[in-house]
Design a protein that fits this description.
N-terminal domain of TfIIb, alpha/beta, Rossmann fold, 244 residues, single chain
């Protein structure tokens, strides 16, 4: 996962992929519900910094991302001392936090389940006692479904995004992303990248989480109870106090 594939499309990320206020408001709502006295929040996979910018009105915020192009955009919005370049598979911040979150299916970029388990352990080490961990992921059902109906075409402004999703193994899918940027009239410039995602059986994910967390709540992206055809699942967890 050198740079997670977003370098070629970083300049379009906010407009096309990463500007969903509802998700970060959901994170804020769950932090308030389960850790009302939280003061510090850390984002794993902070991308272009929109989530940290919003949450900085309420908390001390920091984040990490592997992609230098995304971080350059984030630095225009938030204090660069608050963001770090690193790989969420092995990154543990030097300070601990009251809440850690990881959204927009960032964890799906970890292609091996051992990497998911390592990530969960690292998050646990990054949290204060009773700290809250919130993350989401694309389900296997969703990735299978999208691969069957691809390609998907999205027009934004005068530009186009074509996403062609192909299954390449039992758990892994490749997103071929082509952005056609309108330079003038009908002249377009192509920005292309490939982004891989993996997902796994829900029971397997829950079992791994329960080694370090109490699972407080699960919900689909509309906030409803999850079921076999849920496309994106949110997990809200509390760090286990293993000294008890």
């Amino acid at each position: 996962m050198k740079d997670n594939g977003y370098g070629n499309v970083a300049e379009f990320y906010d407009e096309v992929l990463g500007n969903s206020d509802e998700n970060v408001k959901f994170v804020r709502k769950k932090i308030l519900k389960y850790n009302r006295n939280a003061h510090s929040v850390f984002e794993m996979g902070c991308g272009t910094g929109n989530n940290l910018l919003y949450l900085s009105e309420f908390y001390e915020t920091s984040g990490v991302d592997i992609n230098s192009h995304m971080l350059k955009i984030a630095e225009r919005k938030i204090n660069r001392k608050r963001i770090f370049k690193g790989d969420i598979r092995n990154f543990i911040p030097s300070a601990s936090y009251d809440a850690v979150f990881c959204i927009y299916d960032t964890v799906n970029h970890l292609l091996l389940f051992n990497e998911w388990k390592r990530f969960f352990r690292n998050v646990s080490q990054s949290l204060n006692t009773d700290g809250i961990f919130i993350f989401d992921f694309n389900t296997l059902f969703k990735l299978e479904m999208i691969s069957e109906i691809s390609p998907l075409i999205n027009k934004f402004g005068k530009n186009y995004l074509i996403a062609d999703v192909k299954k390449i193994s039992a758990n892994t899918f490749n997103w071929n992303m082509k952005v056609f940027r309108n330079k003038k009239n009908d002249e377009f410039a192509l920005h292309e990248t490939n982004i891989k995602e993996s997902s796994f059986d829900l029971f397997k994910i829950l079992t791994a989480l329960e080694k370090d967390f109490e699972i407080l709540e699960t919900a689909d992206e509309s906030g409803k109870t999850i079921f076999s055809q849920s496309e994106r699942i949110f997990m809200i967890c509390r760090k286990l106090n293993k000294n008890i």
